[in-house]
Amino acid sequence: MANKSTADKVATIQKGYALEGATIELGAAIVDGELHKDAPVRLPLSMMNRHGLVAGATGTGKTVTLHMMAEQLSTAGVPVFLADIKGDLSGLATAAAGSDKLAKRTESIGQAWSGKTFPVEFLALGGDGDGIPVRATITSFGPILLSRVLELNDTQESSLQLVFHFADKNNLELVDLKDLRAVIQFLTADEGKEALKELGGLSKATAGVILRELVALEAQGMERFFGEPEFDTAELLRTAPDGRGVISCLELPTLQTKPMVFSTFLMWLLADLFEDLPEAGDLDKPKLVFFLDEAHLLFNDASKAFLEAITTTVRLIRSKGVGIFFVTQTPKDVPADVLGQLANRVQHALRAFTPEDAKALKATVSTFPVSDYDLEETLTSAGIGEAVITVMNERGAPTPVALTRLRAPESVMGPSTGELVRSSVAGSALLAKYGTAVDNVSAYEKLTGKAGAPTGAAAAGQPPAPSPEVFVPGSPDPTAVDDEARRIEEEILGRPSSRQPGSGGAGSGPVSLPPARRQAPQSGGMMGDITGALGGALGSGLKSMARSMGTQLGRELLRGVFGTSSRRRR
What we know:
Blueprint: H1 6-16, E1 23-31, E2 34-44, E3 52-55, H2 62-75, E4 80-84, H3 100-108, E5 120-125, E6 132-134, H4 138-141, H5 143-150, H6 154-169, H7 177-188, H8 193-199, H9 204-219, E7 247-251, H10 259-276, E8 288-292, H11 296-299, H12 304-317, E9 322-328, H13 336-339, E10 344-347, H14 355-365, H15 375-381, E11 386-390, E12 402-406, H16 418-426, H17 431-434, H18 443-448, H19 478-492, E13 531-535, E14 540-546, E15 555-558
Parallel strand pairs: 3-9, 3-10, 4-7, 4-8, 5-6, 5-7, 8-9
Antiparallel strand pairs: 1-2, 1-12, 10-11, 11-12, 13-14, 14-15
C-alpha cells in the first residue's frame, strides 16, 4: 500500500464510489494532501437505513455534516428527524447567502451551490420552547424508559414494571405523572395492602423510593413532558406538497439541565416508530432518517434492559425503512453491539491530548477497514469540515476509506430568526392537534374522585399569522392535510385509514381535539382481562385493554421491547 502512487489511490476511491442509484453527495476526496474533485465521495440512498455514525471532537463540524445530509435527504423526498441541541439547525428554514470564500470552497469540490430553504417542522418537548409541543403518556412511555428518567436501579425498575402491570390490569390509565403517583400512593396506603400483596415482587419500601423519585421529577417541572394529546410519531413521516421530505427539528434548549429526560424521549420516539411501522424490506430510499445527537447520553449508566432494548431496536428497525445515525464524539461512546450495526461512518478529527484520548484514537482506527491512509495521523490532522469516510455500497460491501472535504450546506449554518420560527409554528397544521394540553379522566381521578385539572403548557391564545414567505409543512389546505394523514397511514404505515377523503382537517371550523389512540372497550369477554403474563426484563408478553372515559375512545396496549405500548389507530 505504501508504494501505491497518488493516481492509483485516487483510482481506488473513484472505483469504490462509482454508485449507480440515487446518492447523498458527501464531498471530494483528499489524497496525499491534494483535493481531487474528480473523486467524489457519496453514500447510496438505499443504504441509509443501514444506520451510521457521525463522530468527532467538539468543533470539528459534526452538526454541519448532519445539516448537509438532512438537506439532501429532504430534496430526495426522505423525511428527517433532527434533535437541535445547540439551536443551529433551525437555519434549515432560511436560505444561506453566498460569499467569495464559500464559492471558492464549493467550486474546489465540484459542488454546484445555491442558497435554498427547506420544509421544517419545529417541535419542542412539552412546549419547552417555541415549537409544537411533543408529549407522551406515561403508559406509552413504558416502565423501562421511565426507569431511565428516574435513574432507578434494576430492582426498582422491575418493581415499576409491576406497578404498570397493576394499572393495566385494573384499567387505571397512566396519562401523566400524577396518575402514576396516585397508583403508587394507593398501593402503599392501607386500602391497597391486598393489591400490593398480590403483586408479590413489589415491596412497600421500593414503592416508596419510586414515589419519592416521581415527586422529585415533578419538582423539577418535568411533568409538562407527559400528558395528552400524545404526539403521533407518524407525523415524522410526512412529505411537503412539492415532494420534499419534511425535516422535523426538535428544539432542546435546556438539554444541559435535563439530559436524561431528553435522550430518553428521543429513544421513545424511535421505539414508538419501531412498534408502529410494518416490515418494508429493501427500499430504494428510507421512510425516515433519524439523527440522534449527543448519543453518549443514551448509554451513560444505562441498565442492561435498556441497552438490550436499544440494540434490538437498532437491529430490527432497519427492515422497517428507518435509518438511525448516532452523533457523538468518539465511537467508544457507543456500545459494541450497537456500533457493529452502524455501516456508514463519517469520522471527523479526533484530539490526542491525553492518554485517554490516545487510547480512544487507537480504538477508532481499529474499527476502519484497511486503507491507503495512515489513519492515526489523518484523524488528528484533519481540518474543520473534513472527515474520514467509509460507507456501505449498493452490494453491501464497505467502500474504500477516504479523507473527504465535505460539501457546504445551502441553508443557514446557524439559527433562523425567532420571528420566522414562531411564524412557522403558528401556521402549522399540528398546532391545533397538539398545542393545548388536556387532562381527561384517568387513574388519578378514578382513585381520588377528583375532577381533572389541565396539565402542561397550553398554546397561546391567538397565535400570529404565518408570514407568506415562510413554508409551513402541511398548512396550505385542511383537506390536503387530512389526505396526507391518510397517505401516511395507508402507504407508509401499511394499514387502512379511518379518515374520510376530503373530510377536512385542522383549520376547518372550530378546532376539536383528535381522538386519543385507543379502542373503545366492549362489554364482557376478554376485553377486561389480562392475557399473557409479565414476562422478562423487557415486559414482553404483557397485554391488556386500557379503558378511557370522557372524550377518549380507549386503546389496546401491547408492551414492546421498551415496555412501550404500540397503537392500532382505526
